TrEMBL record:
Residues 15-82 form the NLE domain. The gene is LOC100789690. This is Ribosome biogenesis protein WDR12 homolog. Belongs to the WD repeat WDR12/YTM1 family. InterPro entries: NLE, WD40/YVTN_repeat-like_dom_sf, WD40_PAC1, WD40_repeat_CS, WD40_repeat_dom_sf, WD40_rpt, WDR12/Ytm1. SMART domains: WD40. The keyword Membrane does not apply. Pfam families: NLE, WD40. WD repeats lie at residues 149-194, 204-236, 270-310, 356-398.
Length: 435
C-alpha cells in the first residue's frame, strides 16, 4: 500500500488513537490504542484503516473512509483539528470511521430529447422524469423506460409520485408550463423494450401562468401546485363522486376523438406570496411549505388556508425540502450558491442554523435523504450535484456527471442519486453508502 503523501514513518510527533466504528463486519478493526503520526489527514487515516482491515483479511478491497472526532468530520490533519477544537493530544483519541458517502458507480446516461427539468425517486421500483419536450417518462433503471406520459403542450416542470408505496397501479402527477396539472394511472410493471404511451385521466386547469411545482399530500388524496401566478392551488385526486365534481370532456384531434378526460378546478387557493411561487412540499398531512421569488418560505395550514410561518432570506428561492432531525429542518436554495437550513423549533429561527457554500452558481434542487438525519443533496447551475452531511461544512462528494446546468435531482432507493440537466441527460450515481 502506497502512503507516500502521509508516511506513517515520516512524522516525528505521534498521538495515541483508538479506531471505533458503527459498521458491522467485515469493517471492524481492533479497538486497541495505537500510535500514529499527528499530521495524518483523511487520506492517510483511510489508508491506515484499510491496512488494518487487510491484516485481518487479505481479500479486503480498498475502501474510502471518513472520520469523526466528537461527532464532527475531520477535514484537516489531526494536529490541526485538535488545535482548532482545543482537544488535548495527551489523551487517547477516539476516532470513529465510516464508509465515505460517495458514488461507487456511474450508470450510462439516459438521453432525452430536451432539458430534463424534473425527477422523482420516491418509489424504489421506478422513478419519473419530466422534460422540456412536454413528456413525462417512467423508468425502471438507466436506459429502461417503461411509460411515456403524453398530453402536455409545453415543458413539464415538475413530477410527483402520489402513491410511491402503492400496489400495481400507481398514480402520478405532472405540472407544466402549459398552465395545467395532469394525473396519470399506470401499471409499474410496464414493458421495457417498447415503452407504453399513456394519456392523463384527469386535467386540472385554473392557474393563470406556468405551473412550477406539484407535491402530493402524504395520504395521496390531494395535490398542491405552485405557479408563476403567485398562488398555490389545492386539488382533489380521489375519484369519489368524480362524475359529479368534474367535467368529462372529449377532445378531437384531426379525424380522431380522444378518450374522455376528467377536468377539475382547485377547491382551495392559498394567497400571500407576492412573486412567483417556485416550490412546494407537503411533508405532513396538515401543513404545506412553499418557497418563492419574493425571498420567503411560508408554512400553510391546509384546513384553514392560513399562512402560519414566514422565513425571509433576502434571496430569490428556487427549491425547498423538509427533513433532517425530526423531519423538521427546512433546506432551501436559490439565486446564490448557498444552501440554507433553518430549524423552526429553535428560538431566533430567522437565521439559518447551517449554510453550505461550495457551489458556484444558482441552486436548482435540494433534497434530504429519507433515512438519515444528517444527509442531503444539492444541484446547481454550475453543473454539479453535491452530497452533504450536517457534521461538516465541506461536501462529502461532488458528482460531475453533467456537462451543463443541473436542473433537478433526487435520491433513489436510498443509495443512488438521479439528476437531470440542460444537457438532456438523466444521470444515475449509485452504490452510495448512506447509513
Amino acid at each position: 500500500m502506497n502512503m507516500n503523501e502521509e508516511s506513517v514513518e515520516g512524522s516525528a510527533r505521534r498521538i495515541q488513537v483508538r479506531f471505533v466504528t458503527k459498521l458491522g463486519e467485515p469493517y471492524k478493526v481492533p479497538t486497541t490504542a495505537i500510535a500514529i503520526p499527528a499530521d495524518l489527514a483523511r487520506f492517510g487515516l483511510s489508508s491506515l484503516v484499510n491496512a488494518l482491515l487487510q491484516s485481518n483479511d487479505a481479500d479486503h478491497q480498498l475502501e474510502p473512509f471518513d472520520f469523526l472526532i466528537d461527532g464532527e468530520f475531520v477535514r484537516m490533519s489531526l494536529e490541526q483539528f485538535l488545535l482548532a477544537k482545543g482537544i488535548s493530544a495527551e489523551r487517547i483519541l477516539e476516532i470513529e470511521y465510516t464508509r465515505a458517502v460517495a458514488p461507487r458507480k456511474e450508470e450510462d446516461p439516459s438521453l432525452h430529447d430536451d432539458w430534463v427539468s424534473a425527477v422523482d425517486g420516491s418509489s424504489s421500483r421506478f422513478f419519473l422524469t419530466g422534460c422540456y419536450d412536454g413528456l413525462g417518462r417512467v423508468w425502471k433503471g438507466a436506459g429502461l423506460c417503461t411509460h411515456i406520459l403524453e398530453g402536455h403542450s409545453d415543458a413539464v416542470t415538475s413530477v410527483s409520485i402520489i402513491n410511491p408505496k402503492g400496489e400495481e397501479t400507481i398514480t402520478v402527477a405532472t405540472a407544466s408550463k402549459d398552465r395545467t396539472l395532469r394525473l396519470w394511472k399506470l401499471n409499474a410493471e410496464g414493458p421495457v423494450n417498447n415503452p407504453m404511451r399513456v394519456r392523463a385521466y384527469k386535467i386540472f386547469r385554473g392557474h393563470k401562468s406556468s405551473v412550477n411545482c406539484v407535491a402530493a399530500q402524504t395520504s395521496g388524496e390531494m395535490v398542491c401546485s405552485a405557479s408563476w401566478d403567485c398562488t398555490i392551488n389545492l386539488w382533489q385526486t380521489n375519484d369519489f363522486n368524480a362524475e359529479d365534481d368534474l367535467v368529462s370532456k372529449k377532445r378531437k384531434i384531426g379525424a380522431q376523438v380522444e378518450e374522455s378526460q376528467l377536468e377539475g378546478e382547485a377547491f382551495t387557493t392559498l394567497v400571500g406570496h407576492t412573486q412567483c411561487v417556485s416550490a412546494v412540499v407537503w411533508p405532513q398531512q396538515e401543513s404545506i411549505y412553499s418557497a418563492s421569488w419574493d425571498h420567503s418560505i411560508r408554512k400553510w395550514d391546509v384546513e384553514t388556508g392560513k399562512n402560519l410561518t414566514d422565513l425571509f432570506c433576502g434571496k430569490v428561492l428556487n427549491c425547498l425540502d423538509i427533513g433532517g432531525e425530526g423531519s423538521a429542518l427546512i433546506a432551501a436554495g436559490g439565486s446564490d450558491p448557498v444552501i440554507r437550513i433553518w430549524d423552526p423549533r429553535k428560538p431566533g429561527t430567522s437565521a439559518p442554523v447551517f449554510q453550505f457554500s461550495s457551489h458556484t452558481s444558482w441552486i436548482s434542487a435540494c433534497k434530504w435523504h429519507d433515512q438519515s438525519w444528517f444527509h442531503l443533496l444539492s444541484a446547481s447551475y454550475d453543473g454539479k450535484v453535491m452530497l452533504w452531511d450536517l457534521r461538516t461544512a465541506w461536501p462529502l462528494s461532488v458528482i460531475e456527471s453533467h456537462s451543463d446546468k443541473v436542473l433537478s435531482a433526487d435520491w433513489w432507493k436510498s443509495n443512488s442519486v438521479i439528476s437531470g440537466g440542460a444537457d438532456s441527460k438523466l444521470c444515475i450515481s449509485s452504490e452510495i453508502p448512506v447509513k
